[in-house]
Amino acid sequence: MKLTEEVINDIRNSADIAQVIGHYIPLVKKGKGYSALCPFHDDHDPSLSISEDKQIYKCFVCGNGGNVFTFVSNYKKIPFPQAVAEVATIIGKPIEIDTTPKKVSKYQNYYDLLNAMIAYCSYLLNASKLGEEARNYLEERGLEKEVSEYFNVGLNPDGDRIYEYLKNHGFKDEDMIKTGICRMRDSGMADVFYNRIIFPIHDRDGNPIAFTARDYKGLSDSKYINSSDNIIYTKGDNLYNYHRAKDAARKAGYVLVTEGVMDVIAYHRVDRDNVVATLGTACTKNQIELLRSLSRRIVLSYDGDRAGQAANLKIGEMLLNSGFEVAVVDNRTELDPDEIIKQYGRNALRDLEGRQISYIDFAFSFYRKQYNLDNYEDRKKMTVRMSLLIEKLPDQYDRDNYFNELFELTKIRKRVSQDVHELGYNKKVADISFSIDGLTKAEYLIIAQIAMSRKALDIYERKLGCLLDENAQKLSMMIIDDYRHNEHCSLSRIYDQCDDDNIRNMISNLALLETLPSEFDEEALSGAIEKVKTEIKYRKMSDLKKKISSLSTIDPAQAEEYLREYENLIRELGGNNG
User: Fold this and answer.
1) CA distances for 246 relative to 20, 84, 205, 238, 279, angstroms
2) What pLDDT digit, counting tens, does each position of 296-348 carry?
3) What burial class does residue 478 get, using C-beta atoms within 10 Å of its C-beta: 0-12 exposed, 13-18 middle, 19+ buried?
4) Residue 495 has what pLDDT?
C-alpha cells in the first residue's frame, strides 16, 4: 500500500494516543489525561503527560513530545512510515507498506543460527526417539508438550549432533563459537550443552540470544549451565520471558519477578503470564530499566528458601529506591513455584500468588526472624534498617503508620537525622510542570481555542488577527490553513506536517497545559485577546517614546504627531502610562 496523506489521516484520526502509548508503557490516569514514566530518559517520577483531547504527549523533563506516530517512531527507533504501520496494527487497521524496507539487524546471522538450533532441538525433543527419556523427565515435572513448545524447550543430545546439523546447513564455526553454543577442543568442534534440555533466552524483541540448559540424566554436578556473555548476550541486560510477558504485564497492571526459567514456566501452568526471571538472585540496573518498561508495580516471587527470601529483600530495596511500588508473594513454604505445584497442585501456587504483601510488611517479617527482639542492640539494628526502608515510601500516611508499627515492635523511636537524609531517603518529588508568563499563557489560550472551534477562530480574526510571539503567530497561521482543508482542526495533524521544532514543541506544551479550558470558552478567549491587545499597545507606546525622543529636535512636527498617538494610547489604557 502506498502511504498517502489520506491513509495517514485516517490512521491518526482513528488512533487514541492513550491506547497506543499504553501498548508500550504503563499509564496512570491523571486529571483529564494520563501520566507515565518517560521511556526516553532515566525517569523515576512520572514526567510524561498525555492529552487525549489534543492527542499529544510531552515530557517536561527531557522535552520529548509529539503525537502517536512520533511516540512510536521514537520508542521503537523506526522511521515514520513504519511507525504509521505499527499504529495501524495496534488500532486494528493493519496496513502493509510496500516501499518500506525491513531493517535488518547486524546480528541477524546469529539470530538465524540460534533459531535453527532451537528448531532442531525442539524436533529432537518432541518428535525423535532420542528425545524419549527427556520427554519422560519433563512430563514427570509437569511440563506437557504444549508447555514445552510454548517456551521453545529442546534437547541437545550427546555426540555433537547440534554442531554437525548446523555445519551441514551452512552455518560458520566462528559464529557458533561467538554465540557460545559450540567450542573448539583438541579433537575439534564440540557442543556446549550436550546431554541437556535447553531453554532458549530471548531479548526484548524476541530474538534468541542465549540458553540455560538442564542436566536431566544426573551426569553432572551442575544441574544448570548457562550461556556465557557473548557477542549478542549480556546476562545483566536481559530478563527471561520479557518478550512474552509484555502484554500480560500491562494488562495485569504488575509483573511477577522470579529467579529461574522453571519458576516462569510454573506460573504459566497456572495461567499467570506476566512473569519474568532474572536468572539468579541478583538484579542489575539494566534489568530494572526493563522492568520499568513493563510496569511500575513489581511483585517479587523468589524461592521460599533463605537465599530466595534474601533476594526478595535486596532486590525489593533496589526497586523501592528506583521509584517502584513493590510487593512480595508471601511464600513461607521454603519451596520454589515448581515444587509447590509438584507437592500441592496448581491451585496451591495460584492461591499463593494471590497472597501478596507489601514490601515493607515482608521486610518486617524477614527482620523479625533475623533479630532477637528481647535484646536492645538487635532491636536498635532492626529500627535503623526498617527506618531506612520506610523513609523511602512516597506516601506520608504510609510512612507514619509503618513508623508507629516499628515503635510498637521495638519500643525505639525513629531518629530522623541528617544521616538518613544524606543517604537520600527523603525523595518525594513534586509534580513536574512548566511555568509561563501571563502574555504567553494568553497566546497559548488563543491558539488552543481557535484550534478547537471555528467560532473562536472567527472571533480571533475579527478582534485581533495576529499574535506577538513569532512561533505563536506561525502556529495560528497553520491552524487557519488547516481549517481551509479540513472540517475540524487537528494539532496532531499539524504536528506531523510541520518540520519546525519550535512549533512542534509549542504544540506539545499547549496540549498539556492543564490550566487551559478544555472546550470553547468565549469569555476566556475574549479576556486573552484583550491581554494581547493591551500588550500590543504597551509595546507601541514604548516604541513611540523612543521615536519622540529621537525626533524632538530634528523633526518637531513628526514628534508632535507621535506624542498625540502616545496620549491616545494612554487614554485607551485608562491613564496608565506603564
Assistant:
1) 14, 21, 10, 13, 18
2) 899 999 998 999 999 999 999 999 988 899 999 999 988 999 999 999 999 99
3) buried
4) 85
CA end-to-end span of the chain, whole Å?
61
Tell me the per-residue pLDDT of 270-294, one tens digit each, with 9 for 90 and over: 999 999 999 999 999 999 989 988 8
Residue with cell 529636535: 553
From the number of C-beta atoms within 10 Å of its C-beta (0-12, 13-18, 19+), residue 205 rates as exposed
Apex CA 222: angle with CA 220 and CA 225, to 5°?
110
Q: Which helix (H) or strand (E) covers residue 255, if one does?
A: strand 255-258
For residues 443 and 562, membership in a common domain is answered with yes
Residue 432 resides in a domain: no
- 376 and 404 fall within a common domain: yes
- Whether 502 and 522 map to the same domain: the answer is yes
Please write down the HEC assignment for all residues of 128-144. Answer: CHHHHHHHHHHHHCCCC
Regarding beta strands 48-51 and 356-358, do their DSSP bridges make them parallel or antiparallel, or are they unpaired?
Answer: unpaired
Owning domain of residue 291:
238-362
- Is 129 a member of any domain? yes
pLDDT tens profile 406-450: 999 999 875 544 343 333 333 222 233 344 567 888 898 999 999
494/523 same-domain check = yes
Specify the CATH number for the domain of residue 304: 3.40.1360.10
CA distance 34 to 38: 12
- The reported pLDDT for the residue numbered 552 is 67
